[in-house]
Amino acid sequence: MATYITLANFTDQGIRSVKDSPERFLAFKAMAEQLGVSVKAAYWTVGNYDIVLVVEGTDEAATTLLLKVGMLGNVRTQTLRGYSEQEFRGIVGKLS
């Protein structure tokens, strides 16, 4: 399974109903589980981003999940593919 780190910001709609954010997260977790994506961590943050998520799943499932979340209109996301130390060692081990 691939690891993805998602940086999210509340939209105007999302911040107006910020009190609902913990419940929306539970719905997000349920949606993730239905798609076969595992939510490894979630943090509400201050600074440039409002939420940081770490999820694991196939490329297709993770992309589907994040597109579905975006369609709801509460957050805008940037997603990064993350590699564990072991995965990255394998990658750099193939360099000549």
Could you tell me the radius of gyration in angstroms? 15 Å
Main sheet record: 4 strands, antiparallel
Record the strand order, biggest sheet.
Answer: 2-3-1-4
CATH fold group: Alpha-Beta Plaits
Q: Give the assembly state of these chains.
A: single chain
In CATH, the homologous superfamily goes by the name: ACT domain
Order of helices and strands: EHHEEHEH
- Helix segment count? 4
Query: What's the CATH architecture name?
Result: 2-Layer Sandwich
Q: Strand content of the residues, in percent?
A: 25-35%
Number of strands: 4
| Helix content range | 40-55%
Structurally, the number of domains stands at 1
- Poorly predicted runs are none
Give the class-level CATH name.
Answer: Alpha Beta
Mean pLDDT across all residues, rounded? 97
Terminus-to-terminus distance: 26 Å
Shape: elongated
What is the SS-derived class? alpha+beta
